[in-house]
Amino acid sequence: TMKNPVPQAASLLLEKLLLLVHVRPLSPGSGGEPPPAPGYYDTSCFKRGDLLEVPRTLFIHFGIYLGENRVAHLMPDILPALTGDRRQIQQVVTNKRLILGVITKIASIRVDTVEDFAYGGSILVNHMDRLFEDQVLGSEEAARRAEKLVGATAYSLLWNNCEHFVTYCRYGAPVSFQTDKFCETVNMIIRDQRSVLASVLVGLASIVCLGLAPSTTLPTIFIPFFLWMAG
């Protein structure tokens, strides 16, 4: 007998919801692994204006290389709305700051070292250029666009994430292929007659399996309905 695809799709949706915004669920009591030490990556092969991709299990994080081991990238973060202390804001974004940023739709386009940006992952350089062909802007133009946008900004999981940021900088138009794939997964669930149950199970699973507070799971439960109404 074939397995029911809806629970599997709901599980995949939960994972993508968390990973698309770069949440790294940690086991209870775990502090996570520190980022690699400076010099872990050979930055001599990077050029100013390059688009850097860091593939993870279910998502890709994006940034624009600015030179001198600096990467501009967009991260959900509540802290810029609470303080103007640059030293606090520049610290590595914790899961709590990130999740609150997602809920309140606040983000920061920040500049970090390559080590903090990639966090031990492999880096692809200008891998998306093949998809945009003649739309690639000059490297200096891409870097300047990124530098002008550094600071607090609005955030949307679907409409203004890290991929939108880098495609605007390097190709002139904000696009997110990850968003397209995410929406396809959601549409697959809501087309099924058991979609209501599936969407609720996604929220409940996040509480049981990941220990998230109910308030942080509300977007998970209601996103399928919002997309259905908008579509």
TrEMBL record:
Keywords: Acyltransferase, Cytoplasm, Endoplasmic reticulum, Endosome, Lipid metabolism, Membrane, Sensory transduction, Signal, Transferase, Transmembrane, Transmembrane helix, Vision
LRAT domain residues: 51-178
Enzyme class: transferase
Listed EC numbers: 2.3.1.135
Transmembrane annotation, as ranges: 196-229
Catalytic residues of the enzyme: 162 (acyl-thioester intermediate)
Pathway(s) where this gene product acts: Cofactor metabolism; retinol metabolism
Subcellular location field: Cytoplasm, Perinuclear region; Endoplasmic reticulum membrane; Late endosome; Rough endoplasmic reticulum
Reactions it catalyzes: 1,2-dioctanoyl-sn-glycero-3-phosphocholine + all-trans-retinol--[retinol-binding protein] = 2-octanoyl-sn-glycero-3-phosphocholine + all-trans-retinyl octanoate + apo--[retinol-binding protein]; 1,2-diheptanoyl-sn-glycero-3-phosphocholine + all-trans-retinol--[retinol-binding protein] = all-trans-retinyl heptanoate + 2-heptanoyl-sn-glycero-3-phosphocholine + apo--[retinol-binding protein]; all-trans-retinol--[retinol-binding protein] + a 1,2-diacyl-sn-glycero-3-phosphocholine = apo--[retinol-binding protein] + an all-trans-retinyl ester + a 2-acyl-sn-glycero-3-phosphocholine; 1,2-didodecanoyl-sn-glycero-3-phosphocholine + all-trans-retinol--[retinol-binding protein] = 2-dodecanoyl-sn-glycero-3-phosphocholine + all-trans-retinyl dodecanoate + apo--[retinol-binding protein]
Single GO molecular function: phosphatidylcholine-retinol O-acyltransferase activity
Signal peptide as annotated in the record: 1-28
Keyword Transmembrane: yes
Topology in membrane: Single-pass membrane protein
GO cellular component entries: endoplasmic reticulum membrane; late endosome; perinuclear region of cytoplasm; rough endoplasmic reticulum
Example GO biological process: vitamin A metabolic process
Described purpose of this protein according to its UniProt entry: Transfers the acyl group from the sn-1 position of phosphatidylcholine to all-trans retinol, producing all-trans retinyl esters. Retinyl esters are storage forms of vitamin A. LRAT plays a critical role in vision. It provides the all-trans retinyl ester substrates for the isomerohydrolase which processes the esters into 11-cis-retinol in the retinal pigment epithelium; due to a membrane-associated alcohol dehydrogenase, 11 cis-retinol is oxidized and converted into 11-cis-retinaldehyde which is the chromophore for rhodopsin and the cone photopigments.
Family membership: Belongs to the H-rev107 family.
Annotated protein name in UniProt: Lecithin retinol acyltransferase
